[in-house]
Amino acid sequence: MEVIVRKTYEDISREGAKIIRKKMAKKPDLILGLATGSTPLGLYKELVRMHKEEELDFSQVKSFNLDEYVGLVPDHPQSYRYFMNENLFDHINIKKENTRVPDGMANDLEAECLQYEEEIRKAGGIDIQVLGIGSDGHIAFNEPGSSLGSRTRIKTLTKQTIEDNSRFFEKEKDVPRFALTMGIGSIMDSRSIFLFADGERKGDVIAVAIEGPITADITASILQMHPRVTYLLDEAAASKLKRRDYYRWVDENKAKVKGATT
Ligand code: PGA
Predict the structure, then answer these.
(1) Which residue intervals of the chain are DSSP H helices?
(2) Are strands 153-156 and 178-181 parallel, antiparallel or unpaired?
(3) Which domain holds residue 83?
(4) In a 3-state reduction of DSSP, which class is residue 196?
(5) Who lines ligand 1 at CB under 6 A?
(6) pLDDT at 204
(7) What is the pLDDT of residue 201?
(8) Residue 261: inside a domain
């Protein structure tokens, strides 16, 4: 596990993009697991800048998104496919056919979930999974109480998430009640995981997820079981961590011994 704390949101976004660039240099056909929400926007902006100004090449990259609402067409402004096109895919040279978002309009949603898992497996698995964290500790749409072994499936959203997301819709009743989401087990299969969080409002949940007990109540806490997880936090999001001095110490000293982590 690694906890990287930087002063601002922009700093963690840049740091994350640098890590992805470094991995792409070693593996140009990287398999990226991508997230939506406000957290990864800075990361995507920086990747777009690197593509435009530094010729970062996505032509061989494949991507899989974590989740999608059920019942929104791909060009609905609140669909996650639309979000990804607008904020990343339309501005880099990734091939659209190599970008996969669960199809929330599929006739057979259960078959779509199985197919999604199969496509990830066939692609060779996810190299880098990007995650945000919800205020209730969820990752993707794995709400509190989700099975820690869950796979891609149809999920009923909690009232809290519907309320949180209603700010993007005209009326609360327009927020979809269901989503397709990669499960906790699917996310844990990724070779490396990078969870980003910023701002004071994420401070409490970050402390519980990283340093509290592993529980389905805070689904992000399962990441403690992953051998290669990195948390990229701004100072506000890291402010409630008990061991933050130790994490800083590790970060400052890691260049001395290759591969040193907490
Ligand atoms: P946010 O959402 O990035 O908009 O804070 C995170 C999440 O719900 O996973």
Answers:
(1) 9-26, 41-54, 80-87, 109-123, 159-165, 184-188, 203-211, 235-238, 244-253
(2) antiparallel
(3) 2-256
(4) strand
(5) 37-39, 132-134
(6) 98
(7) 95
(8) no
Q: pLDDT-derived band of residue 51, with 50, 70 and 90 as boundaries? A: very high
Specify the pLDDT at position 165.
86
Q: Which two tokens stand for residue 240?
A: 């409630």
- pLDDT, tens only, 61-77: 999 999 999 999 999 99
Query: What is the CATH classification number for the domain harbouring 123?
Result: 3.40.50.1360
262: in domain? no
Compute the average pLDDT of residues 250-262.
79
The closest-lying atom of ligand 1 relative to the alpha carbon of residue 36 is 3
- Answer whether residue 58 is part of any domain: yes
Does residue 152 lie within any of the structural domains? yes
- Give, for ligand 1, the residue of 38, 157, 181, 196 to mutate: max count of ligand atoms closer than 8 Å to Cβ: 38
The confidence score (pLDDT) of residue 255 equals 75
Pick the closest to residue 186 from 149, 155, 211, 225 (CA basis): 149
State yes or no: is 67 an active-site residue. yes
C-alpha 133 to ligand 1 mean position (Å): 5
Mean pLDDT of 40-50: 98
How many domains are contained in the chain? Answer: 1
Given its phi and psi angles, is residue 23 left (phi above 0), alpha (psi -120 to 50 degrees) or beta? alpha
Q: Hey, what amino acid is at 241?
A: L
